[in-house]
Amino acid sequence: MPIYAYVGTDASGTRARGTVAASSPRAGRDQLRAAGVRVAQIKPVQSSLWARSTSWWGAARARSQWAGAAHELSMLLRAGISLDDALQTLASQYKGALRDSLTRLDAEVLAGRSLAESMRDQPQIYDPASIRLVEVGENAGTLEVVLEELAEFRQRLAEFGDKVMTALMYPIFLLCFGLAAMIFLMTGVLPPLLENLRETLDEIPWPTRVAQAMSQVLVQHGIKILVVVVGLAIVVSLALRRPAGRRFWHRLVLRLPLVGPVLVKQLVARVSMIIGLLLRSGIPLDQAVELASRSTTNTFMQDILNRCHGDLTAGRDMAASLAASGLFPPLAVRVFSVGQDSGQLDSMLTRLGDDYNHQVQLASTRMTALMEPMLILVMAVLVGFLLVATILPILQAGQMV
Hints:
Layout: E1 3-9, E2 15-21, H1 25-34, E3 38-44, H2 46-54, H3 56-78, H4 83-93, H5 96-110, H6 115-120, H7 128-140, H8 143-160, H9 163-197, H10 206-241, H11 243-254, H12 259-280, H13 285-294, H14 299-313, H15 318-325, H16 330-342, H17 345-400
Antiparallel strand pairs: 1-2, 1-3
């Protein structure tokens, strides 16, 4: 439903401004007139709100703020504040895409739509699991309780973070910095130095000859190499945008040595916590698996969960489907099997997620502790080789003087 911003005066003559959801400007004026507001100006704002909300950076930031907003919304509802007033209060507190989103939710709730229906129109900010939980809370009359659980769940997922990528950031930075230093030495230091020493020395030391050959390749063909690298990056980026390429990449990453098992545990932990929360809120297992699939960005995991959903719908065992995927560890498969039989699947999945999260933290810390000294050693050897290749001819020329 379109949203309109209005400026006018209320029954007491005080200046009033805000937004209203209506099918047309005339319908918006009629709604405001019935509420005692005399409209001076009304104009559509949906396009600007949608553009800001759907921008990549704005949507990502709004998703990260949603956990805190859900907790505050639950607190306001527990205090007896109506849903529309609570949304309006939150909208005045935040900035950017989330403020626009909350303003839009407030306007649509005032127009008679449910909160879950309004959230469903903004999939770039609210994930399917959050929308379904809010819908359950509205139908059961326990929206404030569900929002509190949702806020705690989102905060725990935020604590999960992408620990593997975070652990790899410093080694990657170190590698990039070392390569930049080597390229600078080979292209900016060695060529003029060797040019001056070529007339003095009869024979250049072998480390210097090796460094000189590498330097000539970079100087003569550096632009071509850069073009090839950029071209490959563009091709890979375009391939990853296609479903087949993205699925291949997601599967390949999970099969990598050292990093793959840690990524698998992190992914399984997130899926387990999502399904556990949905089950605890009274959502059937097949719907919980479907929502977990839609809330997962890894396409390989999505395919597995979609097959599990199909097996559950057909009345087959979910644990067998997970075991056949080859991705879920035996412990996770056993937890699903025992949890279904005992009727305690929600609590067991939550404990599994916590346990795997702890294992991911330990593995990430160990990985970083192992990779940092290895990269430092490799870069020290490479940069040291270039320094030796640079200093040797200087020393040799000094001895000849």
